[in-house]
Design brief:
The chain has 904 residues and is an alpha+beta fold. The chain has 15 helices and 45 strands. The radius of gyration is 29 Å and the shape is globular. It catalyses: Hydrolysis of terminal non-reducing alpha-L-rhamnose residues in alpha-L-rhamnosides.
Length: 904
């Protein structure tokens, strides 16, 4: 009997061999890499040991799960209580569909962080303040230490309010941000083993605090570190922040803020004040000051530190071209918009010479970098005061930009001297999800979306890497839809969901809402449409991740959202009416779309808005789905079901005019405007009466693009639900109308906040307030995978995917979709009446494959005819469970494995 394949890709809390895990019963996951037909798991056994030697001896001294009958390739740790700062070793073996046992997997590990506040035994420190806390102030901290032996393992547990760059012996080993509330602050665990040596060492940090803003809650500056080094002589050395640390001002000079949103300074660096080697043992810090000790953690205002289970990946991007302007200024072009910091290497600086720099998205007619276009009124300048000789300018804070203008550099600068350090969230694989097709413009748009989503992920999902580096709920939801399918990302999404759950309990626990942006510096701030959309985000994340913990965490909030919607149902109309929230202004009672011009004339002057009601219908539907997945009591599910049906009936009765859906109503009258928003959402949520589906779908398709990047997923969902792939391709590829192809035609390299932010009819003050690096518009990646590649997720408990290529619009497509069981790969081609498709269904899963039948009505799998078949329930091909036909479509239910299908 052939042995079952060995489990691989062992992950703890969705990470491979992670550090600083503070879950007390972390979830352990695995998969198998095979295309063997029907390969699946029927049982598993997990061992967790305190040492590698014990694990190798099959001694699960901390936990032996025993052989568990289960087809789910995941389990929560259930052994002895975990301890702080320890490494845990684990492995897994499986039994397959025939009962064959696998070999043990290779060993994996996870390390715990500091599980209790008292484990820190370190103080929060800062540079002494003369008065009020100064925004954007940069400080150095350093601590000398001597190690008596070689280092076998060393971990630094570090946090800052707000940002730090951690150095050991002069080398930067980590850069971090902890944009969170002081009572729920983040820390990171950093491996510093290789950075430390026997003998003299220095630990240093560059620290800055921004003050409150988007993504930055109110707080105060502080830095904390605990370093634990296990030495070769068997001893352990612990170094913590305390009164023995020294501090000095860093060479950033006082400067105005870039804008009022992010509270970052226009960085002006004075190289003459730079203290070279300040983080090395040879440096003399006699002139430095003692730090101010705020208090031993926990201390006001820092109550709790939470492990930050995500990091940042950085890479150097070289400039592609340089242009010299008439005044001698140089403009460097990096080819695309990235999130990053510029790096300029000067070979022969002059003492006191000031170099002005400006980053931006576009160039003016005279070649200069525009200070206005796409910047959202953000001051994107830098300044550098040189010292004599060779030196490098590298600022601290990142921006989104493509071009860098350098005025009066003082020397000739070549392409090799100017670069950008681009940065994004550390994702498992930036190319995990792929798509290529017979339509080049579709492919270009897909790459636009992939690039935008990648750089819209930083320490959190960001509204834009320029003005608002904050995490807006709908932006985060939209970006998360892409990152989970394009990169196999999980940890940033679950963090974001957790944070919005926290926003509910911090600000809205009594009435069921969530903050529109969180964390943030302006407290309670909600948008009704965002709150209503939260259950959909939870459900979609669960479908791709099988993250049951998120379902459990979010369910009480989802229930709160439902109660919030139901409370606003008007007795007379049965509709959600005057939905509270938005705090006046353009957010009041629901925004429909954003920015304002993306409403395309939606008639908002009604107490019952159609979009608000349809989002309410969907929130009730998803609440029932989430509750069912959690095995909640039937009365709870019946409540969701009943209220959904009642609201849905009222929507059709009051807001459907017999043909189309109008924008709103009151008890006596309704709007005469039938917007794309109203009708697309009705299609997307399955509310359209059967008799009107064709009419509504035609209306939506014929309107082209009349929804903005924030809400356009529902337009794509509507066209997918009504089986209109040609209309989807038109939306993606027509440069003459608003949309992604128009962005590309205008030279855009990142999705925008507003389709027509280059529209000459838009007032200048509004155009300048529209971001040209807004990743929320990348959601079309998801719908290309779903509607054009044809791959859709099923529920994790079913583990059955659906692969149904479109019946028109493209001649061919190939792509890969990451799943928890491995990549699902498909390639299909249409040639006249002949259709061919190859599909690889990952281990432990199945798929329903649907494809068109040709005039002969025949379908073969691996060369064997399965349609027509006298015994369709017993197909002649291994791995094929069932075949059936409906009209001109054949459906084949298959197990894991690679299948080649053809029809003609």
């Amino acid at each position: 009997m052939t042995a079952m394949e060995q489990p691989i890709d062992l992950r703890t809390e969705y990470a491979s061999n992670p550090l600083g895990v503070d879950e007390t019963n972390p979830c352990l996951r695995w998969r198998v890499d095979t295309d063997r037909r029907g390969a699946r798991q029927t049982a598993f056994r997990v061992l967790v040991a305190s040492t590698r030697a014990k694990l190798d001896a099959d001694d699960g001294d901390l936990w032996d799960s025993g052989t568990r009958v289960s087809d789910r390739p995941a389990t929560d740790y259930g052994g002895v209580p975990l301890e702080s700062g320890e490494r845990y070793h684990w492995k897994v073996r499986l039994w397959d569909e025939s009962g064959t046992e696998s070999e043990w997997s290779d060993a994996a590990t996870w390390e715990t962080g500091l599980l209790d506040a008292d484990d820190w035994e370190a103080s929060w420190i800062r540079r002494p303040e003369d008065g009020d806390f100064e925004r954007g102030r940069f400080s150095h901290f350093r601590k000398e230490m001597t190690l008596e032996a070689d280092v076998e393992r060393a971990r630094a547990y570090v946090s800052a309010s707000h940002q730090y760059a951690l150095s050991v012996n002069g080398d930067v080993v980590d850069r971090g941000q902890s944009f969170a509330y002081p009572d729920y602050h983040y820390y990171k665990t950093v491996d510093v083993t290789d950075a430390l040596d026997a003998g003299d060492n220095v630990v240093g940090a560059l620290h800055t605090w921004n003050g409150e803003g988007q993504g930055r809650p109110e707080g105060e500056p502080g830095f904390i570190l605990r370093l634990v080094a296990d030495l070769a002589d068997g001893s352990t050395r612990v170094v913590v922040t305390d009164g023995s640390w020294r501090t000095a001002s860093a060479p950033w000079v006082e400067a105005p803020l870039r804008n009022g949103e992010i509270a970052e300074p226009v960085e002006t660096v004075d190289a003459r004040r730079e203290m070279c080697g300040w983080a090395t043992p040879a440096f003399d810090d006699t002139d430095w000051d003692p730090v101010e000790v705020v208090g031993i953690h926990p201390t006001d205002p820092w109550d709790r530190l939470i492990a930050q289970q995500r990091g940042i990946t950085r890479k150097t991007v070289e400039a592609e071209a340089v242009n010299r302007l008439d005044d001698g200024s140089l403009v460097f072009d990096f080819g695309r918009v990235y999130a990053g910091v510029p790096v300029v290497s000067f070979e022969s600086g002059t003492d006191g010479h000031r170099v002005e720099l400006r980053a931006g998205y576009r160039r003016e007619d005279d070649g200069t970098v525009s200070a206005d276009e796409g910047t959202q009124w953000t001051d994107m300048r830098y300044a550098y005061l040189q010292r004599d000789g060779e030196q490098t300018f590298r600022p601290f804070n990142y921006l989104g930009f493509r071009y860098l203008q350098i005025d009066d550099p003082g020397e000739h600068l070549s392409l090799e001297q100017v670069s950008m350090v681009a940065r994004h969230n550390e994702v498992p694989n930036p190319t995990a999800g792929t798509f290529e097709s017979s339509n080049e413009t579709v492919d270009d748009v897909v790459e636009l979306a992939r690039h935008s989503a990648l750089y819209g992920c930083q320490e959190q999902f960001v509204d834009t890497p320029t003005r608002e580096k904050g995490q807006f709920l709908m932006d985060a939801f939209n970006i998360s839809q892409v990152t989970t399918r394009a990169f196999g990302e999980r940890r940033l999404s679950r963090q974001a969901i957790d944070e919005f759950v926290q926003s509910h309990y911090r600000y809205w626990a009594e009435d069921g809402r969530l903050n529109a942006v969180y964390p943030n510096g302006d407290g309670r701030r909600d948008i009704p449409d965002f709150t209503e959309s939260f259950p959909e985000w939870i459900w979609r994340y669960y479908l791709v991740s099988d993250d049951r913990r998120i379902l459990e965490t979010a369910y009480p909030v989802v229930r709160g959202v439902v109660d919030y919607v139901v409370r606003h149902v008007d007795d007379e109309t049965g509709l959600v009416t005057n939905l509270s929230g938005g705090d006046g202004g353009p957010y009041e009672e629901g925004i429909v779309d954003w920015p304002r011009e993306m409403r395309y004339g939606y008639d908002r002057e009604w107490p019952a808005r159609t979009t608000v009601n349809l989002l309410g219908v969907n929130a009730l539907r998803r609440a029932e789905h989430i509750g069912a997945a959690l095995d909640r009591p039937e009365p709870e599910l019946a409540y969701f079901r009943t209220r959904r049906r009642e609201l849905e009936a009222a929507v059709v009765d009051r807001l459907h005019d017999g043909e189309l859906f109008v924008d709103g109503c009151n008890a006596e009258n309704r709007s005469a405007n039938a917007s794309q928003h109203a009708n697309a959402l009705a299609l997307a949520f399955g509310v359209v009466p059967e008799r009107s589906v064709e009419r509504v779908a035609t209306h939506v398709a014929e309107m082209g693009m009349q929804m903005g990047p924030m809400m356009v997923p529902w337009l794509l969902e509507a066209l997918e639900a009504s089986d209109r792939p040609e209309a989807i391709v038109d939306l993606l590829t027509d440069p003459s109308q608003d949309g992604w192809a128009n962005i590309l035609e205008q030279g855009g390299t990142f999705t925008w906040e507003s389709w027509h932010c280059r529209d000459e009819e838009m007032p200048d003050d509004e155009r300048r307030n529209r971001s040209e690096s807004h990743a929320m518009g990348a959601t079309m990646f998801t719908y290309v995978q779903r509607a054009l590649l044809g791959v859709r997720y099923g529920r994790p408990t079913d583990r059955t995917f659906r692969v149904a290529p479109p019946h028109e619009a493209l001649d061919s497509a190939t792509g890969r979709v990451p799943t928890e069981y491995g990549p699902l790969k498909t390639a299909w081609r249409r040639d006249g009446d002949r259709f061919e498709m190859t599909v690889t269904v990952p281990w432990n899963a199945g798929a329903t494959l649907s494809l068109p039948l040709g005039p002969d009505g025949e379908l073969s799998v691996d060369g064997e005819t399965v349609v027509p078949s006298a015994a369709s329930d017993d197909p002649p091909v291994a791995g094929v469970r069932k075949t059936e036909t409906t009209g001109h479509t054949a459906t084949v239910l298959v197990d894991a494995g690679t299948f080649v299908l053809s029809s003609e």
